[in-house]
Amino acid sequence: MIGVGGSDWKHYLRKKPHVVKRRIRKGIPDCLRGLVWQLISGSRDLLLMNPGVYEQLVIYETSASELDIIRDISRTFPSHGMGFLAGLLLLYMSEEDAFWLLVALLKGAVHAPMEGLYLAGLPLVQQYLSQFERLVQEHLPKLGEHFAQEMINPSMYASQWFITVFSYSFPFHLALRIWDVFLFEVCNAFLFKHHLLMIKNDPH
Q: What pLDDT is recorded for position 82?
């Protein structure tokens, strides 16, 4: 399905998307997880289109950013000393690959940008919390009513879920499976929607 260095991925995905979806839901083999995440997210293409950029950024890194990183260490993976997302990615790929995957996610290489999770005011987190609250009310009305009576809102318990994309909230093996499905579903849902819009707007 992947080919050498991911060379067959796009062709196979276009040809047999349902097979890819089924296999990813079963779980990506651990030895291939890093590469497949890069292919799914579009970060592999970003890396290849921007040779040398990461090295330049590392050279010009400021001491201020280093201080921010050091200050964050105690609040993240204690045994790895990195941000939750970065720590998860760095377990499966190089620094440069992890950097471009973060860029792909935050800026939206093949899906809607996720940078709103971390912008001032956390706009995307607020949106997700509101959507989550409506889903609880719709699918678990008794629980939703109980939360309302006790004045418990999702921001009290679910913010960390969305800010860390569930990498903090679950056992590590489960977080990996969530990320397998999350990356594939969010990226391909966006591509499918974009494809439909192209068809709709095509005069022919």
A: 53
